[in-house]
Amino acid sequence: xxxxxxxxxxxxxxxxxxxxxxxxxxxxxxxxxxxxxxxxxxxxxxxxxxxxxxxxxxxxxxxxxxxxxxxxxxxxxxxxxxxxxxxxxxxxxxxxxxxxxxxxxxxxxxxxxxxxxxxxxxxxxxxxxxxxxxxxxxxxxxxxxxxxxxxxxxxxxxxxxxxxxxxxxxxxxxxxxxxxxxxxxxxxxxxxxxxxxxxxx
Length: 201
Hints:
Helix content is 30%, strand content 18%. By secondary structure, it is an alpha+beta fold. Strand 3 and strand 4 form a beta hairpin. Helix 2 packs across helix 3. The chain starts with a helix and ends in a 14-residue tail after the last strand.
């Protein structure tokens, strides 16, 4: 299932990387090379020092709760800031660097290895967790708990940049906010807008 999902992302133009090939500190959740490459290509007039200040603003801790930090960073990513630096280009999507990474080790309070992380310009915006549809004991509800309880507790840094999380067993897929109850997760029932919704929960 996991490898199949990685292949689907590649078909959509994402660069695939296995977590073990990523060169970074285990506690760092950003792909700083991708982030710097994007910023340099979009803002060639800025000096390296100015670009580092932009990254510092994205990585600075304010003492807020994880929810507060997530809301602050989402505002930085999605709003037009006063300094006119956009960490993600929403107007010309092809300017962004899209990467899907599986089995990426992240060390926080504990060591955790999410099944998949979607990066845009080095920012981890989506975390995916998969369970096997053939194991009765491993449901997507278990994947929800793994993300929203264990991962949220043990590697909160990863979720500062998170737009949403995805849980799937290959048959049923849902997505929602890390901070939402399970009942508020939305089922993916179709891929293309003109498709009829499929069954699934």
